[in-house]
Write a structure and sequence with these properties.
The chain folds into 2 domains: about 1-45 and about 295-425, no CATH class; about 55-285, no CATH class. It is α+β, with helices and mostly antiparallel strands. It has helices at about 1-10, 15-50, 60-65, 145-150, 170-175, 215-225, 245-250, 255-265, 270-280, 290-330, 335-340, 345-385, 390-420, 420-425, and strands spanning about 55-60, 85, 100-115, 120-130, 130-135, 140-145, 155, 165-170, 185-190, 190-205, 210-215, 230, 230-235, 285. The strands form 3 sheets. Strands 1, 3, 4, 7, 8, 9, 10, 11, 13 and 14 form a 10-stranded mixed beta sheet that branches. A two-stranded antiparallel sheet has the order 2-12. It has a two-stranded antiparallel sheet with strand order 5-6.
Length: about 425
């Protein structure tokens, strides 16, 4: 009897039912799109932000400890004041190695060159990896400044890590010295001299514009420091820091066992830095707080905005359903009054109405969910140039949202239904 009444109610007044389904479907569509993006936006936003530089810097422990108090330039080659190049690859083997988007070691040394007029010029030469092929299980990863400093503009071309007779220069340095792409430049360092061909000019808007840039092996040879680097810059996908991450950054030993496991197994910048120190015992890894803070703030604001849009869309659906259901109850007042006169309780009639609305709402929600997945992909491709991964949790959240919208939207109509008196309705009052 119950199911027969619901079936008959659904087949009558189809226009009103379609409007309710459309209102529910629209809310479900927006909710699905926004929730899908919210649950997948963290990695997408972090990937976008890592294109603007490293968020973790690794330095020798002695320099990091004393460098803030004293000038360490005079003893930078002292024992322990450098990192071993062969330890750098271990960074990709930490627990969160797959979150390491790129990295590059750096070695700076003073060199002397002659400008186009024959005058002597002293400048800094920085050696690094440009597009280094790092062997990591199960494949090979390309890392280096080409990916780490993607905003740099290069006139000419990049040198490669295999070219031992090429060098790049900052655009400002080249302009002062009168050099152009293709010139041969002789550089003299503490470890000897070498003639190199200028293959590219770098414009970065920072200190790199006044330096030479060469493959790491060339810088090590000119500095007389084989196998050594001064620092390593790391770009990693991280989770915004919370109170647990900040406490761990100050003192990991202050955490309980459960807190420590949670922190260690979460991609906080501080936990990634801690794991880097585990594979490089003589190093101190520090997150760049300005970058990590901005990443967390942007991600939080983006998620908040999308959740607000989701809430507003569901609220609009609830208001539309409230108007439509109230109109339907007024239209069916004679039918409802007759049911009451025949002995049906207000609770039974309210249950029948809610069952009808839930069936219509879930049908509209299913269609809205499918459309929402398509909208989420459009957002992902247009904003992040990547596909949004469908999440099973979205199905449950949208289903609960649709049910809540239907129930909330039907409350005014249920209140009207409970106040209907059979005698008034049947006598046309």
């Amino acid at each position: 009897m119950w199911f027969r009444l619901i079936r008959r109610a659904l087949t009558r007044r189809r226009g009103g039912r379609l409007l309710i389904a459309a209102a529910t479907g629209l809310g479900a569509c927006v909710a699905t799109a926004m929730l899908s993006v919210v649950l997948d936006v963290g990695d997408k936003v972090n990937a976008e932000l890592t294109a603007y530089g490293a968020n973790i810097v690794v330095r020798p422990k002695t320099v990091a400890t004393v460098g803030g108090l004293y000038d360490t330039s005079a003893w930078e080659t002292a024992v322990g004041a450098w990192l071993a190049e062969d330890e750098v690859a271990g960074i990709k083997n930490i627990f969160w190695g797959f979150n390491i988007v790129s990295l590059a070691p750096f070695l700076e040394t003073a060199v002397v060159a002659r400008d186009a007029a024959g005058g002597e010029l002293t400048a800094t030469l920085t050696g690094t990896w440009f597009q280094h092929q790092l062997e990591t299980a199960p494949d090979t990863t390309a890392v280096g400044v080409v990916a780490l400093k993607s905003w740099w503009r290069v006139e000419g071309g990049w040198t490669t890590d295999q070219d031992q007779d090429q060098v790049m220069a900052g655009a400002g340095l080249a302009e002062r010295a009168g050099w152009a792409v293709g010139d041969n430049i002789t550089l003299q360092g503490a470890g000897g001299g070498r003639s190199l061909r200028l293959v590219g000019l770098i414009t970065s808007g920072e200190a790199a514009d006044d330096q030479f840039w060469a493959p790491l092996a060339v810088a090590q040879a000119l500095a007389g420091r084989p196998g050594q680097v001064d620092r390593v810059e790391v770009a990693a996908l991280t989770t915004p820091e919370n109170d647990l991450a900040r406490r761990a950054a100050r003192d990991p030993s202050s955490l309980t066992v459960t807190e420590w496991e949670t922190w260690y197994c979460t991609a906080y910048a501080s936990s990634i830095a801690y794991q880097i120190e585990e594979v490089m015992p003589g190093a101190v890894a520090k997150p760049v707080r300005q970058i990590t803070a901005v990443q967390g703030e942007i991600l939080t604001k983006t998620e908040s905005l999308m959740l607000l849009v989701t809430g507003l869309a569901l609220l609009a659906s609830a208001l539309a359903i409230a108007n439509l259901v109230t109109a339907s109850v007024m239209e069916r007042s004679a039918e409802i009054g007759l049911l009451k006169a025949l002995g049906a309780s207000s609770r039974a009639i309210a249950g029948l109405l809610l069952a009808e609305l839930l069936v219509v709402g879930l049908a509209g929600g299913a269609v809205g969910y499918g459309l929402g997945l398509g909208c989420a992909q459009l957002v992902g491709r247009s904003v992040f140039a990547a596909w949004i991964t469908p999440r099973p949790a979205v199905v449950a959240l949208v289903g609960l949202g649709v049910a809540a919208v239907v129930v909330v939207g039907s409350l005014p109509a249920l209140r009207l239904l409970l106040r209907l008196r059979p005698a008034d309705v049947l006598h046309g009052r």
